Amino acid sequence: MKLPETFTVKMKALLKDEYEDYLASYHLPQYQGIRINTLKVDLEQWETINPFATLKEVPWCKEGFYYDKEEKPTKHPYYYAGLYYIQEPSAMSPGAYLPIVPGDRVLDLCAAPGGKSTQIAARMEGKGVLVSNDISASRAKALLKNLENFGARQAIVTSETSEKLASKWPGYFDKILIDAPCSGEGMFRKNETAVKSWENYGVDYCMRLQETILEDAATMLKPDGMLLYSTCTFSPEENEGMIGAFLKKHSDFKVVPLLPVGGIQEGKPEWIDAPASLKGALRLWPHHIEGEGHFVCLLKRENKNHELSYKPQLYKRLKDYSEAYAFLKEQTYLPEDLPVVEIKGKLYQVPSDNPPLMGIRVIRCGVLLGEIKNKRFDPGHALVLAYGKEMFKNTICYKSTDEEVIRYLKGETLLHEAHKGYHVICVDDQPLGWVKAQDGRLKNQYPATWRMV
């Protein structure tokens, strides 16, 4: 790969004796990772069902594992059941280092395609509320699919600018993750198009975006809240320099030192005359770790401001929608007082601690339970993935090695003597999707856009 000359000159000056080792990393293999979805299976259970021959732990993420390039995790039924997410190992570090507590209000501000949001959702253990935002509506749709597949019941997906969100939600969130748009220098080894993007946009363009996003995030963070800033670039201007400038303007924020593990290095404030406390940030270098380049810095806001109060949102309950309630009572064990909202006939299970959503472009608010059509209720695919087998009254279970599972995921009709009506297909007791049984056949309800090819 031919690197831009201005980049190599700068890296030589920064890395000095390490530069040749860094350059040699371009000839090392690219590392692949999966992260286990602990919303659906804990790590002990995973060990008993793990279908892959060789997995090695990612040091900074206990749910993360390297897999061999010969493995095909996207072709296994567990992928479609949402038991794991495929993610570059370094990209697991921001979600691992943000100290999530179940019940938190969390904002993932630049969330697509959803790797970090799914990681946060799992750590929330189904409690609190997660807002996953991406300014691009098309990218937000991919974000939504990944959250649905992961079974993230507490997630709201939005597509807005950070300025718009800050105007609506000052002081609302306990934790905020900013995986900031950046010059992408840490991805040069993985993706040659990142080099072209760097040449077209450069560091200065990204810094303007980062500064705006950081300011808006500060507006939305509670007193005592925590903000984790990350990039996939080596640029000190976008990393220690950006945070250093932010700290000068916000004396109520302090750096929380993070523990480097597995070859991760400390921050480099001396590269750009930033505060010494930024040694507590982390740098992930491809010549020190098995992964790509990343920067991670955790900030805490001191309790100097009054927390803004938000009126709790008032929602109807599942029992208030007769068609949906009748169907779901027959098919599931969902409680009748489940908070729900109906939008144009579509019924959503919503987190009870939602922020006010008026005036916000919402892609999805909670779990799509289904749609009310002509006094009947058609169940949603997201409902199946949001709950375990024990929540459904009518299930048909296969093993992951059964050919029926692959046929189902490809959208084919199956033969099975089940009683008439809806059933949930499961693989090794993990829900996959709906079928409609009649006359010894199972009419496939698996969404066309999700099917295995």
Automatic annotation (TrEMBL):
Phylogenetic classification of the source organism: Bacteria, Bacillati, Bacillota, Clostridia, Lachnospirales
Organism expressing this protein natively: Cellulosilyticum lentocellum (strain ATCC 49066 / DSM 5427 / NCIMB 11756 / RHM5)
UniProt entry tagged with the keyword Membrane: no
PROSITE patterns: NOL1_NOP2_SUN, SAM_MT_RSMB_NOP
Keyword set, alphabetical order: Cytoplasm, Methyltransferase, RNA-binding, S-adenosyl-L-methionine, Transferase
The protein's name in its UniProt record: Fmu (Sun) domain protein
GO molecular function: RNA binding; RNA methyltransferase activity
InterPro entries: Methyltr_RsmF_N, MeTrfase_RsmB-F_NOP2_cat, MeTrfase_RsmB-F_NOP2_dom, Nol1_Nop2_Fmu_2, RCMT, RsmB/NOL1/NOP2-like_CS, RsmF_methylt_CI, SAM-dependent_MTases_sf
Keyword presence, Transferase: yes
Residue numbers binding S-adenosyl-L-methionine: 110-116, 134, 179
One Pfam match: Methyltr_RsmF_N
Domain SAM-dependent MTase RsmB/NOP-type: 22-302
Superkingdom, taxonomy of origin: Bacteria
SUPFAM superfamilies, sorted: S-adenosyl-L-methionine-dependent methyltransferases (SSF53335)
GO biological process terms held by the UniProt record: RNA methylation
Catalytic residue positions: 232 (nucleophile)
Family, per entry: Belongs to the class I-like SAM-binding methyltransferase superfamily. RsmB/NOP family.
Xref: PANTHER family: 28S RRNA (CYTOSINE(4447)-C(5))-METHYLTRANSFERASE-RELATED, NOP2 YEAST -RELATED NOL1/NOP2/FMU SUN DOMAIN-CONTAINING
